[in-house]
Each structure stands twice: as C-alpha cells, then as structure tokens.
Amino acid sequence: MAIFSSTGFYGFVSSVRKTVEGLYQKHFLSGAAGHGWEIGERSNGKYCLEIDDIVVRNTMTVFELLISKIRAVKGALAITQASGKIGSVWDDEENYYITIEDEMTFVPYDWIRCQRFSHEQRLYHVMVYEVEGNVIVIPKYEFDDQPSRPQAGDELVQFGNRIDKHRQSAIYLHADENGIPAVDVMMGITSKDWSKCVKMRMGGGLPDAPSDWNGLYCENGTIKAVDEDQNEIYMLRPDGSGFVARGNIRWDAEGNGAIFNDAIVWDENGFRFGPDISLSWNNLAEDAKVNLKGEKGEKGDPGEDGANGKDGMDGKDGADGRNGEDGKDANLLDWVEDWDGSNTYIDGKKLLTGRIFGGKQESDGSLTGVAMGYEVFRNKNNQTCSGIFGLVKDEPKFILDPQHNDYQFRGAVYAEEGTIGDLEISNGEVIGRDKEGNTRIKISRGELKDFSELEEVNKVKVSVAGDTGWFDTLVMSYDERFQPSPSNRQSVDTYIYTDFFP
Asked: What is the pTM of this model?
C-alpha cells in the first residue's frame, strides 16, 4: 500500500487542472526551462508524461528511448542552405579545388564564408564557380582581397547565391557580437555586402536605433494575432494601417480612423462624432469637467445708459395671417430648451455653446475672424457686449450688439430695399414721409413727373444734378417740369424734389 505525505498529496491534488487532452499542474510550462508536470495526449492516442525527475528502484521497460540534448554553440549559429568541412585542397595556376567531407550541399554561384580564430585567424568570403561531384572549384582571383587561403579542416557556411533566389536567405543567431544577442532573418543575399539584407531582427542592436534598444525590427513586415478559431484580434500592416480590439479600433495608411462602428471618426479635418453619439456636460467625468472649465473672468464695469431713440412712424396695417400653432411657454427654439444655458452640448445634429470664435491669430497676437455669443467683445467704451462681431486684426468691421442697441458696418452694403430711420428705399427711390404719411422728400434715378401727392399751393425748391455738377436752384409748382437754366443746359440723370422748404 502506498503511503503519501498528507501535505504533499494535498498540494499535488489541489493544483491539478483538467483539459480535454489530460491533466496538468497549475502554472505548468513545457520545455527544458519549464516547470510543473503534465499527463496528456499528444497525438493519435499517444500519451506523454512531462516531469522533472523519475526514480525507478527496480525494472523500467522502455520500448523506444529518444534523448533530447540541449546543445550549445559558442559564438553564432547560421541556418542556411549549405555548409561543409574541407577535407583536402589542391590548386593549379587558375583555381583552387576543394573536396568537401560528407554530403555535398553547395551549388555554383553560392557565396561561402569561413571565419575562425584560434591560434591564427582564418577568414575568407568567396563565390563557388563550379561543383564537380564532391569538389568545388573557386578561381584564385576570388582570394586576392582575402586575408586567408583555403586549407583542410576549414568549416564553410553558405550565405546567399548570386542568381538563385531560393538560396539567398539565412537565419543568423548570434550572442557575442558587441555583447548584444539577436536573431536575424536575412533575405536577398546576392553579394558579400549584407548591409541591406537584414529584413528582421529580434533582440538588441536594432537598425537605425540607439544601441541600448531591444525589440523587434521588421522591413515590410506584418504583425498579426488570432485566437484559437483563427479570428483576427489585431494586425499591424507594412503600409502603417492596422486595427486592434478585433477591428473595433482601426486606421488606414494615412492615419484616418474610426472607433466602434464610426462612433468617433478622425481624419485630416479633425475628430467628429457619429450620427447617434451625444456629448453633453453630464456625460463627462468630473476631472474632464474641471479641465474644460476656464478661469473665471473679472467682473466688467457697468455700461452707460443709451440715448433715447426717435419715435418711429406708424406703419400700415398688414393683412391677417393664417392661424398659427399653439405656442410654447418659452420663446426658445424647441431644440434649445434642454440646454442648461452655459455648458457645451454636441450631438449629431446640433451644437449649443455660449461662445464661438472662428478665425485665426495674427503674428502680432491680434485676432481676425468672427466672434459670436455671450460677452465675447468689448466696445470702445469698455463695455462687455453680446452678439456677432467681425474683426480684422482686432478692429471691428461689423457689430451686431442687441444688448446695447449698437449696429455698425464698415464697408459697402448692398441691398435691394430697406429702411433707414424715416427713409424708405425701394425700386431705386428714396422716400421720406411725415407722421401723417405724406411724402416730404423723394430721390430717384428716373425723371419725376407725378407731384400729385403735394398740395397745389405748395412751392418746392428743386436742385437738379447733371454730369458736371449742380444746376441752379429752381422754384416751381408741383406741375412744372424740371428745366435747367438756359446757361447750364445739360443732360439730367438725377431728379430731386422736396417740400421741406417754404
């Protein structure tokens, strides 16, 4: 009967994990540097026990014994298409003839390299020209610039081929070059120059990087991860595009990208939200709210009272309009009602915010653009103003300030019709009326013939503008035609009449 240590047996059992293939210890790692144990099926009904030590006091029956040794290579290890050891060497006036021990693996135009240092240095890097049975032929001029000549016992390694693309690659493992271990995958080895042949390096001494950097270097490489069902988890492509999180975060070669079915999209024009995404103040984390809030500004001085405006003339009664819909309690637009009045709100169809500026900052620090919103501008009286303001290098070009009843424009204004004070502008005429609605002044590009609006007893002073200046002032009744004085007869293109004068 077997006797178990209670503690040891409990630890053995409590650490067991079960899979479809068998049993293994928690944190088990296979291999020579591994730990723990495993009993499981490897393939085709064959089972394997992996453990540290086995002690057999009597008989152990083994039908097949395979011993794996850990082998060490001092220096570097090259995995290439050919290698061999020189058995003998002879020459003539033109060539070296070299016999290779064991199997011949070299072919014509292979580049071979010998490099060894014991009591003397052995180094040459040359090309094979012919292969005859177990003999390779190399012209002597290949050794003209080499420090050594071939001799028996030299070990040769093939690195590339001048014409055969299938023999132009190698895997080179080295641990003592500059004291930085690395694994190199070399491709396109067609000459003695290897400067552009390292296509991938894992370890230290990465190309074009500081010497103390370790990692992975890959030319035109792809990094791809899949799960057990071969579904892609993430990928980095050679052109710079890629994705992570199973494609939920992706970007193209130019850096344009999106997150979670275009919930957030970015490109050369900046970031934007998808149509179903809302960003409001309440959605933000507390630290984000603190970061977005600006410093509180100083309290402005009270503004001066504005001047009393002139009484406007009575307008004509308009036609009755159609019955409108029932109004809401407030006079806000319906899509603004949910806004808290101060913080910024963004969704796919609207932007609500207190202040907006669109433009640029000049090299001298002044602003050119349009500012709009609440208290975004200070006028010449140092009053804080709300409205819309157009600036060129801090100079206001137009002001729409309903808070202070201030409306200014600098520059030309084009309009088909309108009203300035008591003057009406329409159809190329300027008409001024009194409070009773009587026409008191009229300016027109066309000839004025109809003065029926004036009383017959009224007299008018008339100034007529021509091509070269103003004609004499004439006094006439309402039914008289405009005629310039005989000394100044010219074509008349502007007509003015008024009864403001007695």
From this structure: 0.45
| Phi and psi at residue 245, to the nearest 5° | 55, 45
Task: Tell me which DSSP letter residue 284 carries.
Answer: S
- Taking a C-beta distance cutoff of 8 angstroms, is the pair 192, 200 a contact? no
pLDDT for 459 equals: 38
Cα separation, 18 vs 360, in Å, equals: 67
For residue 96, the SS3 value is: strand
6 membership: H or E segment, kind and range: helix 6-14
How many Å apart are CA 303 and CA 50, to the nearest integer?
89
Vertex 374: Cα angle to 371 and 375 (nearest 5): 80
pLDDT of 326 higher than 60: no
In the DSSP assignment, the letter for residue 332 is S
CA 496 from centre of chain: 65
Burial of 455 (C-beta count, 10 Å sphere; 0-12/13-18/19+): exposed
- Distance from chain centroid for Cα 308: 56
Check if the beta carbon of residue 221 is closer than 8 Å to that of residue 230. no
Q: Tell me if 10 sits within 8 A of 4, measured CB to CB.
A: no
| E strand spans, 402-491 | 406-409, 418-420, 423-426, 429-433, 439-444, 460-462, 465-466, 474-476
Most confident of 66-80, 99-113, 427-441: 99-113
Beta strands in 237-347 (DSSP E): 242-244, 249-251, 257-259, 264-267, 270-273, 345-346
How far apart are the C-alpha atoms of 245 and 248, rounded to whole Å? 5
Spatial contact of 397 and 411, defined as CB atoms under 8 Å apart: yes
Residue pair 89/100 in contact (Cβ under 8 Å)? The answer is no
